[in-house]
Design a protein that fits this description.
Elements (H helix, E strand, L loop, with lengths): L1 E2 L3 E3 L7 E3 L3 E2 L4 E7 L3 H17 L3 H13 L16 E8 L10 H16 L3 E8 L2
Parallel strand pairs: 5-6, 6-7
Antiparallel strand pairs: 1-4, 2-3, 4-5
Helix pairs in contact: 1-3
Length: 134
Amino acid sequence: MIHKIGQISIGGGKGNKIEVCDVMTKDKNLIHIKKNGGSAMLSHLFNQATVSAEMLLDKTFKSKFDQKLEEFNFNDLIDTTYIPNNYTVTMGIINKYTEERPKIPFFSKVAIRYASKRISNMGYKVNIKNIKIS
């Protein structure tokens, strides 16, 4: 498991950077994690997962990501021939509940459904996970 590879620039300007994921595992799981802080915070999580999944399909961005992985000696974590079907995008929500699926506001349920559908339409497997605060 690796953590915080950093952000990758996608153009000019300060804010034009993408963080591919918070955690990446050897079994090809791209994990995005946020604390349940309401609909706005969760929407950011869902959008981050969607944009990251989409950007990894872009050859220029993927090449920059490969270079970043190489810097950390993690180049064996992602295939050179990138096939989304081999990867899972996990959206983890940290909160106080113990259920398998996170308890989230109604608007977030609608947003996560939309994000999940977009990500799966790109070919990825999608996982939504509750992460219990201890």
